Amino acid sequence: MQIYSSSYSSYSTKLTNLHMIRSSRNHNQERNNYNLKQIFVPNSCPNLSVSNTQQLPLNQSVAAIVFGGGPDSELYPLTKTRSKGAIPIAANYRLIDSVISNCINSDITKIYAITQFNSTSLNSHLNKAYSGFGLGKDRFVEVIAAYQSLEDQGWFQGSADAIRRCLWVFEEFPVTEFLVLPGHHLYRMDYNTLIEDHRRSKADITIVGLSSATDHDSGFGLMEVDSTNLVTKFTINPKKTQQDLISVESRTRSDGTSSCYVPSTGIYVIGREQMVKLLRECLVKAKDMASEIIPGAISHGMKVKAHMFDGYWEDVKSVGAYYRANMESIKRFEPLFYDKQCPLYTMPRCLPPSFMGEAVITDSIIGDGCILDRCVIRGSVVGMRTRIANEVIIEDSIIVGSNIYEMEEDVRRKGNEKKKEIRIGIGEKSRISKAIVDKNARIGQNVMIINRDNVEESNREAEGYVIREGIIVILRNAVIPNDSII
Predict the structure, then answer these.
(1) If both were cysteines, with which of 76, 119, 163, 461 could 115 make a disulfide (CB 3.0 to 4.6 Å apart)?
(2) Distance of alpha carbon 397 from the chain centroid
(3) How confident is the model over 392-419, as pLDDT tens digits?
(4) CB of 486 within 8 A of CB of 465?
(5) Alpha carbon 343 to chain centroid distance?
(6) Comparing C-alpha atoms, which of 50, 311, 313 is closest to residue 198?
(7) Which are the contacts of 256, defined by CB distance < 8 A and separation ≥ 6?
């Protein structure tokens, strides 16, 4: 059994309005004597270093731009009320925490988060989790929500359009590079190595590619890379088979050519001047970074290089990918979450320790503040404030957790007959196997969530669940009556 317990001190919530955030950020910078816990001081990891030839350190010369994620039908219903970056992962975290933590641990301390789709939950999380980050000069995590102006009365039309319309914010500091990051990936990366590679090669743009492509598709584009890591071609949704996606270790094909196809991760380092030139001069109508800006930069003669990454990386772009990422987090919990030199940050919640009665728990992750009675949990992720009653069996599943504790007397006072006597959590003698139970769901007694008929796809939203890739997903706030069989 592996349990992670957040121990961060609490911080006041900041409003998400851009100008009010800036005011709060400046206020934080003035009160340097604030007693913040040491883990929030972004001391760089021992293995991280900045090139000695660079005059300015990364925390002054690089700004990160993190995208919260747009509408994605493959993740529905997990994105019904939240953006991709706000989806809970590994019991205590949100997906975007992985990306923000990589920035902090790499001493990249100017972080902008651009949000638009279903952004309320994500904006709240970012402001509560990282409001105490502005300890010194120019250190911040700033949320930029989609906005309308006299010049642009529509919403952001894509990643490139969003960056173009926010350049007036990004140009506030004299950085030399922008680090563009999707906010819904799970990985650990040293961005210092990436930036150093970008500067050493004198590239205009550097794209992070996967050195082993056997388990990943090319959803963020496919790069044709020569023997010097120069990207000669970039395409979206290319018609390439897995045989075409050779690993970087074997650059030479059997026909003697010295190029290979490498899938992109959607992570880019772009020079400040190059970014401004592309968005304001060369490709003024481009809306998307991957499908328009990157191919356009190559066609305009810019030097685009590939930086190979061989670590664990998961693009959580579908229900199946989300399930696999959580199951993988059980196996990789120590390297992903227990590195004290490069920790994974999240929102401090001040929850009590999880209580376990006669629970039998193996190969699982249990979040903070859970109440587990006489139950069996195997190979599962159990999120915060989850209540599991007696004689429950949970196998290979994800229980996202709850926002509140609901006591029996609270349930009895409610007039809704459907919810009467079914409180938030898992009722007695229920069994759950290979399922995702979203937040605040109410599972009655003697419920079997086991995909009895081995269905691959089914839409039963009216009944409180769907099935995606053979995985049952219980909707947020759903009520599953006693004795139900799914």
Answers:
(1) 119
(2) 20
(3) 999 999 999 999 988 755 555 555 554 4
(4) yes
(5) 15
(6) 50
(7) none
Residue 121: name the closest of 91, 171, 87, 166 by CA. Answer: 87
Q: For 148-169, what is each residue's pLDDT tens digit?
A: 887 877 889 999 999 999 999 9
**What are the pLDDT digits (tens) for 241-261?**
444 544 444 445 444 557 888
- At residue 1, does pLDDT exceed 80? no
Rg (CA), the chain: 23
Nearest in space to 427 (alpha carbons), one of 452, 400, 404, 408: 408
- Written as one string, the DSSP assignment of 94-147 is EHHHHHHHHHHHTT--EEEEEE-TT-HHHHHHHHHHHGGG--STT-EEEEEE--
State the Cα–Cα distance between residues 345 and 372, nearest whole angstrom: 26
In this predicted structure, the answer to whether residue 88 has a pLDDT above a threshold of 70 is yes
Closest alpha carbon to 307 in 226, 377, 402, 208: 208
Distance CA 98, CA 181 (A): 11
3-state secondary structure of 259: strand
Tokens read off for 76: 């529905």
Residue 341 CB-half CA count within 13 A: 9
Q: How far apart are CA 231 and CA 202, in angstroms?
A: 14
Q: What does the alpha-carbon distance between residue 240 and residue 262 come to, in Å, rounded to a whole number?
A: 11
Say if residue 7's pLDDT is above 70: no
